[in-house]
Write a structure and sequence with these properties.
This protein has 373 residues and is of the alpha/beta class. Helix content is 42%, strand content 19%. The relative contact order is 0.09.
């Protein structure tokens, strides 16, 4: 993490974790926090699943998880892995043989749930398959599927039970001299998740995968995830994240990046700073921002754009952004470049003009980056 000496109150000190590999993506240590999502197609529909993986990767997903519920899905996984532009995590529940088959099919990581994968002997077989095929493992503890003995001990899902479940499974992996694993302790309850993650972060140096499971629809799930994951990330906990939404996986990726961007932990694409608008606005801010979000989706270069309806905060916000537009009067506003007032532009032409300025700035930043390398 790069420290901000000018504004130290913006610093986040990430928890120190060891690093594992998920395919060619490093997770933990000083690696960037990885963004994940999961397909919701039938895995046996290879074309649909690959299309969804590719769309998620284009949106910025570093890793994509695919469910492997049956033998037919294991066979399809081999082709999905071959065509995927990003590492594939195989989601394994109930049947340990699916884990073995997924490792053989080329999965970069196996997600296994200690509450339903089977006894220790079966877990050992999955570990051996992962080792033989250079495959990492994610221990996926979930409040909704804790082991029976832990529910009897604690009476209900609680942070202590979830941490104990995770540590029991870590012991099995480490007893078998397997250390290429990360861990998650998910719950749909934000408080339970946060407490469990804090507990597991103190108990192990394994990389941590963050998620609020079954968070809900696009709006409610985004809010719950932003609260739960945002607070944990702010505390320095988390090496990879997945936002679980009842929505298109691309939306999960977008929300995940926005959470990371808001904390300065990842930078990708255009960060639009815009006002909520009011009677002072010199143009239709809401419609303008909606249009720009769509028109600028293709920009991958990290940069900032301010769209402010009037001069109350417009010039001040523009000082901090690469490109800016502030509403004025008589049907036009001021364009700012690199924080400085540059030229006026009519409202009816400003969307196209802003897109041009952003694309131009992105090209300049890309060229400077290439020259530095």
């Amino acid at each position: 993490m790069s420290l901000n000496h000018v504004r130290p109150w913006r610093n986040i000190y990430r928890r120190k974790s060891r690093q594992v590999m998920v395919g060619d993506v490093a997770v933990g240590g000083d690696a960037p926090i990885a963004v994940q999502t999961m397909t919701n197609t039938l895995t046996t529909d290879v074309a649909a699943t690959v299309a969804q993986v590719q769309a998620a990767a284009e949106a910025g997903a570093d890793i994509v998880r695919v469910s492997v519920p049956d033998e037919a899905s294991s066979k399809a996984l081999k082709e999905i892995v071959r065509e995927s532009p990003v590492p594939i995590v195989a989601d394994i529940h109930f049947h340990y043989k699916r884990g073995i088959e997924a490792a053989e099919a080329g999965a970069a990581c196996l997600r296994i749930n200690p509450g339903n994968i089977g006894d220790e002997k079966r877990v050992k077989e999955v570990i051996n398959a992962a080792r033989d095929h250079n495959c990492s493992i994610r221990i996926g503890v979930n409040a909704g599927s804790l082991e029976k003995h832990l529910l009897e001990k604690y009476g209900e899902p609680c942070p202590e039970a979830m941490v104990e479940s995770g540590l029991e499974h870590i012991r099995i992996l480490e007893d078998n001299d397997f250390h290429d694993f990360k861990i998650s302790v998910k719950a749909s309850d934000v408080f339970l998740s946060a407490a469990a993650y804090q507990g597991i972060a103190e108990a192990t140096d394994a990389p941590i995968h963050l998620g609020i499971t079954e968070a809900g629809g696009l709006v409610s799930g985004t809010i719950k995830s932003a609260i739960g994951l945002g607070n944990l990330l702010w505390m320095g906990i988390g090496d990879t994240i997945r936002v679980s939404l009842s929505a298109d996986p691309v939306e999960e990726v977008k929300v995940g990046y926005e959470i990371l961007k808001s904390l300065g932990l990842r930078h990708r694409g255009v960060n639009i700073i815009s006002c909520p608008s009011c009677a002072r606005q010199g143009f239709d801010v809401i419609k303008t921002v909606e249009a720009l979000e769509q028109r600028l989706e293709h920009i991958k270069t990290p940069m900032s754009l301010s769209i402010i309806g009037c001069v109350v905060n417009g010039p001040g916000e523009a000082l901090m952004t690469d490109v800016g537009f502030t509403g004025g009067g008589a049907g036009s506003g001021m364009v700012y470049l690199a924080g400085k007032a540059s030229h006026k532009m009519s409202n009816d032409q400003m969307i196209d003009h802003i897109v041009e300025e952003v694309e131009k700035k992105a090209a300049e930043l890309d060229a400077a980056q290439e020259a530095a390398e």
